[in-house]
Specification:
Radius of gyration: 39 Å
Low-confidence stretches: 1-29, 264-268
Strand content: under 5%
Number of helices: 14
Shape: rod-shaped
Largest sheet: none
Number of strands: 0
Mean pLDDT: 75
Order of helices and strands: HHHHHHHHHHHHHH
Structural class: mainly alpha
């Protein structure tokens, strides 16, 4: 009866069913293996992240949804930390630098105090003397008005220099934050255009990617930087105007033979301030009684004559001290010590920097033909973890421990 069609059909049915069942089992096994392999990478990495508090709980929950979500979250956190560390270094160093620069203000303040004290001494002596109306009109009145305005200009300069330090500090901070944010955005864009970041597979992953990328929008930092530059320029112009006025007044307190030669335009215009030097010399000759305060007057003239030069030098020194920080902030900040807050964040960043290439390399092993079976993948995964001279080498011991824990949990679930 061999070869009977009916018999063949009867016997073929169970064989065909068995093949279908076997094919289904193989297909299911492949799906299970694929899920287990991805789960092993995710659980190993997440366990390390959780132990070292590298992500917040909300971020951790998002990262648990898939290997790609995990990659996106760690990439975002890496860029955020890098940006934050740079900003913290900038803020700390700028504060230190401007603390030292601010000592210039103390010199200007002392100049004002010295001038005030000498002017008070002169006025006290003049009050004890019986000054005639003519002496007051010819010397005391004009000299007192000139001195009062000169002192007011020094105080105006002091206020302007304080404001200048504030706005330059803000400009330096805004400049560095802007450049840090710009570089962070470019770095993140490059990271998310790679194999694990480019193609998102679910709404969750797309949402995370968009959220991570939008965090580094530097439009606001650019706006603040431009505003800070305008403020710096405005205050700088005000200071130069005040210094220009002080220079003009210093010239009027100087022997005419020693004054700067004026331009033809300046010669034709009337001076804004009294020629107190010529006026004082004439008054001392014409009114012998005033010679009692000659030394006081000469002391004040010495202050007037060199004030502009000293204040101009202070402003130039201030700008010279600021310039290296504004031109090459990266080199400037590299030479500065880091505080504890920055060190902690840098250690966290180093762990995340090691994890990202580890996740990328492990993900490549998922599609390797030689590691299709879970057992082979597990062995390959251990080899990846133990590789020498890799970015994650210094945390490989912890990762291997996490892998053992992850496999135990996966085994228990099965």
């Amino acid at each position: 009866m061999i070869g009977c069609p009916a018999d063949s059909a009867i016997r073929a049915a169970p064989v065909s069913g068995a093949l279908d069942q076997y094919t289904m089992q193989l297909s299911t096994k492949k799906i299970v293996d694929a899920q287990l392999k991805e789960a092993l990478i995710s659980m190993t990495t997440l366990a390390y992240i959780e132990e070292h508090a590298l992500l917040t709980q909300d971020q951790l929950q998002d990262a648990k949804k898939s290997l790609q979500a995990l990659f996106l979250r760690t990439s975002g956190e890496e860029t955020m930390l890098r940006k934050l560390i740079a900003i913290l270094k900038t803020t700390k160093t700028i504060n230190q630098a401007f603390s030292n620069i601010s000592k210039i203000l103390a010199g200007i303040s002392r100049s004002g105090e010295t001038l005030q004290a000498k002017l008070d001494s002169l006025r006290a002596k003049l009050e004890q003397m019986q000054i005639s109306a003519e002496e007051n009109a010819k010397f005391v009145g004009p000299f007192s008005s000139f001195s009062t305005e000169f002192l007011a200009k020094i105080r105006e300069l002091h206020i302007g220099m304080k404001e200048y330090i504030d706005v330059k500090e803000r400009e330096a901070q805004c400049s560095n934050v802007y450049h840090i944010a710009h570089e962070a955005r470019l770095r993140l864009r490059d990271r998310l255009s790679g194999s694990l970041g480019a193609q998102t597979h679910s709404e969750v992953e797309e949402k995370i990617k968009q959220e991570v990328f939008e965090t580094f929008d530097y439009g606001e930092s650019e706006k603040k930087y431009k505003s800070a530059k305008r403020d710096s320029r405005r205050v700088e112009v005000q200071i130069n105007d005040t210094l220009g006025t002080l220079k003009e007044m210093c010239q009027m307190a100087m022997n005419p033979d020693m004054r700067e030669r004026l331009s033809s335009e300046s010669i034709t215009s009337e001076p804004r301030y009294e020629d107190v030097y010529t006026l004082s010399r004439a008054a001392l000759k014409s009114h012998p009684k005033l010679r009692e305060v000659k030394e006081n007057i000469l002391d004040l003239f010495k202050l007037y004559q060199h004030s502009y030069g000293m204040f101009r030098l202070d402003f130039e020194n201030l700008n010279r001290a600021i310039q290296p920080m504004m031109v090459d902030a990266v080199a400037y900040f590299k030479s500065k010590e880091e505080d504890e807050d920055i060190r902690v964040k840098r250690q966290k960043l180093q762990k995340i920097e090691a994890l990202i290439p580890f996740v990328e390399d492990s993900a490549q092993a998922l599609i390797d033909k030689e590691t299709r079976a879970y057992a082979k993948f597990s062995k390959k995964f251990s080899e990846i973890l133990s590789q020498k001279k890799m970015p994650w080498e210094y945390i490989s011991g912890d990762l291997l421990r996490m892998k053992v824990m992850a496999e135990a949990e996966l085994s228990a679930r099965m």
